[in-house]
Amino acid sequence: MLCNLALQAQTTVYNKRLADSLGADDYGMKMYVLVMLKTGPAKIADKVKTDSLFGGHLKNIKRLASIGKLVVAGPLQKNDEHYEGIFILNTKTKEEAKALLDTDPAVHAGLLEPVLYGWYGSAALPLYLPAVEKVSKKSF
Questions:
Q1: Distance CA 115, CA 72 (A)
Q2: Which of 33, 71, 96, 123 could form a disulfide bond with 89, CB atoms 3.0-4.6 angstroms apart?
Q3: Is 99 exposed, middle or buried (0-12, 13-18, 19+ CB in 10 A)?
Q4: What is the DSSP string of 53-91?
């Protein structure tokens, strides 16, 4: 009896307009492109130049988020595989993702090397972005 009530409650909250606006399939999911950012092949000795490129990287992250193309980004702890961070891009194809990554100064300069994968996740993922400002005291 309780299981039936729980299932009924779940089906009554479905919002077709919202699901359609987010590109959700029948399971509330959609395809994204997951990007693993590895240490790139470039070695730049000039710290000012490197800092500038990574500053541009952070600005590009904010820009991509503001236009709805980047839904998750963050650095990884040091690791033996030389993975530096991840992106989840709100794109349908790897080609579109590559075009967006080409706008990143650190990627373009070879400081970061992207490895791309198709990823199937919740279509509601972009909805968390407005909450980010509400929990952040500081900005990068």
A1: 15
A2: 33
A3: exposed
A4: HHHHHHHHHHHHHHTTSEEEEEE----TT-EEEEEEE--
Q: What is the DSSP track for 87-133? A: EEE--SSHHHHHHHHTT-HHHHTTSEEEEEEEEEEETTGGGGHHHHH
Spatial distance between the Cα atoms of 83 and 132, rounded to a whole number of angstroms? 24
**Nearest one of 119, 42, 36 to 81, comparing CA atoms:** 36
Residue 34: exposed, middle, or buried by beta-carbon count in 10 A (0-12, 13-18, 19+)? Answer: middle
Whether pLDDT at 8 is above 70: no
The strand pairing partners of 88, in sequence order, are: 34, 72
Sheet holding 70-75, edge to edge: 70-75, 83-89, 29-39, 112-122
